[in-house]
Amino acid sequence: MKYYTIHHHTRYRYSSEVSESTMEVRMQPRTDRQQRCLNFRLEVWPHAQVLATSDCLQNAIHYFDIPRSHSELLLRAQTLVMVQESEPLPESLESSEWKALGEVAATGHHWDWLTPSRFARPTPLLSDFAEEIGFGQDQDPLTALFNLNERIHAAIEYTPKSTAVDSPIDTALDNRRGVCQDFSHIMIALLRKAGIPARYISGYVFLDPERKKEKEISGASHAWVEAFLPTTGWIGLDPTNNSAVSDKHIRIAVGRDYADVPPTRGTYKGNARSELTVGVHISETEDEDIPHDLLDNGHVTTRELVEAESSTRLRLEQEQQQQQ
Amino acid sequence: MPSQDDTVNESALSLFSNYALEGSIFDEMFRANGRPRVSYEKLLQSILELQASELTQRQQAADLTFLNRGITFTVYGEDSTIERIFPYDILPRIISDQEWKTIERGLRQRIHAINLFLRDVYHDGRILQEGKVPFDLIYSCVNYQREMRGVNVANDVYTSIVGSDLVRLPSGEFAVLEDNLRVPSGVSYMLANREVMTQVFPGMFGGYGIRPIGHYGQALLEQLQTLTPKGRDATIVLLTPGIFNSAYFEHTFLARVMGIELVEGADLLIHDGFVYMRTTSGLQRVDVIYRRIDDEYIDPLHFKPDSTLGVPGLFNAYRAGNITLANAIGTGIADDKAVYAFVPEMIRYYLGEEPVLQNVETYLCLRDDERAYVLENLDKLVVKAVGKSGGYGMLIGPYSTAKERESFRQQIQEDPRNYIAQPTLSLSRAPCYIDGHVVSRHVDLRPFILYGGEQENTVIVPGGLTRVALRKGSLVVNSSQGGGSKDTWVLQED
Description:
The structure holds two protein chains of two kinds.
Chain A: E1 2-25, E2 35-45, E3 51-54, E4 60-66, E5 70-83, H1 97-107, H2 111-114, H3 124-133, H4 141-155, E6 157-158, H5 169-175, E7 177-178, H6 180-193, E8 198-206, H7 209-215, E9 219-229, E10 233-238, E11 243-244, E12 249-255, E13 264-269, E14 274-284, E15 301-304, E16 313-315
Parallel strand pairs in A: 6-7
Antiparallel strand pairs in A: 1-4, 1-5, 1-13, 1-14, 2-5, 3-4, 8-9, 8-12, 9-10, 10-11, 13-16, 14-15
Chain B: H1 10-14, H2 41-49, H3 52-69, E1 72-76, E2 81-85, E3 88-95, H4 97-121, H5 126-129, H6 135-139, E4 161-168, E5 174-180, H7 187-200, H8 202-207, H9 216-225, E6 236-239, H10 248-258, E7 261-263, E8 268-271, E9 274-279, E10 282-285, E11 288-291, H11 314-319, E12 324-326, H12 343-351, E13 358-359, E14 363-364, H13 368-376, E15 381-385, E16 394-396, H14 402-414, E17 419-423, E18 429-434, E19 437-446, E20 448-450, E21 459-460, E22 465-469, E23 483-490
Helix pairs in contact in B: 3-7, 4-12
């Protein structure tokens, strides 16, 4: 069992004054079988009343609005979460598991996880890719899962900023480069095609001190995949890292794909470009060394966002890509 | 075609010289033997007493009234959109008290069951689990809103403002052709038709006991007030997509008769989870939105991101129970033309009753055997795209070309879920005054239902909008496809 304190800071800077910002935030970790969110606080500047609700998949949503004009918007989320190591998995399963999956599909309970969604949908490139890596010929679905995890990892190079937040999987399949979001969408699309229910997990990953030095960050927003097998239940797989999920994976939200669960989503009024800066710091709770301000000390990723058009109301791509 | 023993002059009789009766089609005015139905006797007498020139004059007076009042609608074409007056026929369509009682009972039952269905699908989904309605049909519906799962709506009323389309079969029985459960339109034409009728034929009302419909606006307002604990003190607004919408006339009309504000998305904003309207004296809290905007456009944060018509963040206010939307979000799953086929099953399942009003026989193209039948009989059937309305996306087999059929064949095979087929119906025909003659034309009937949570709290103003296919032989009554309308009289109890 591990305890983590997570600081997640987000800043939007606008090229000129905007008003009537409306925003929805998905940053609070889920509380379920494997983890428990012990504390969550979200502060917003300029000050706004933050309200909480949850979506149809019981992901926590925080939302607020800022009517008056502003040129900067800051979010500071602080989380304390407890995570348990997941149950060990068997080496393999019987081949009859394929048949059991068919029965699962027939109940309709996994409809959302078996049908194509906006980012996780079959394309000709995906079919070619499936053939190339030999997906779906395995004895049992669990072996197929592990093999797929490994082969996607081997076939696609993790390259920060190689794709955009709204890139279809074909971009990554074509260039053989992508970020965790692409790895996950490709895997989900393939699993669904093979009749294995699959969903997208938005979360954080805690990096070991050695990797921390290497990457100069202490943790990051991340995304991975969960697949459902009747015998085991939901299994977490991280194709970006070719691993199963561990007690270093912190789950925020579950969705069909990224489009369901971006960390932030908003609109504002005004003709302005926006620039998004995000910093995440994760520590095990005994770690006292939490930087005071993440946005000004190098722990950041900055990205220019959409060019504003001359309309009075813009819907921003104020959505952060999950990098790592 | 009045029988020869009627004591009328020759010129009056010539009015009917082009009136056709066919055994296979129910005529609203005449029985098969050529004698008028009891409910039409007085109307026929009045027509026969008038000269053709007088009818023509009154028709012109009516047209002028529509034009002067700007009662128009927009026809969307591929290249252009046109503004037209709504063609109006001066002869009323008459429904007897007995007939109306059956219609009323049937619609109350039907709309109650549909609301129970919507509640069920967005909560426990019992009817899907028990296989009475196939889950894939619902989950694959473009109007299924996953975000509505677990959301509670005021009084469990999902669709409170409904317009169902009825047709009359050769047997004389009324059947339901489709339900409009999202943003039904046409009620303003029903009200306008009556107003024009009373002006043009003041004398004709004297002899008939016709049930009034003028209270619709008040009934609608009261219905909307029941959807919030504030009741009569509630602030209610009508949300329109704006002046380019085909039903904009109706939006202005209804806002006026209810005495509520007509607003566009930009007039509303969300603050701290509540909905406010911008007024000249500051922000005013809104309790109920009678929205005439489709789900997809209502909140760019949750639905279509490029929509400029909606209110960003509205869905979260809705989910929190801080605003009532009429109708609720997600009702389109129940008027999907394929789901329609299961409404009789819903009535049996939720109410344990047999449907009072029947459905029209419907073939679902997603079922292999039914699709095979449809593809073999394209020349006999009417094929409809499930999500389209207004007569768009439709093939009428007997009047189609080989090329059109081929095109539909391909579309059906590519996306069978999206198509259904029905037999080509012989809609009933009613008398219309066209070019100096009384002729018979196909009609349907759209009653307007205000559902209040139980069958007994349901208000249906007597009658509805009778739409008529003005082109000879045409079966398409939609205003966008050359249809018109006429006043609809429901007679008082004898």
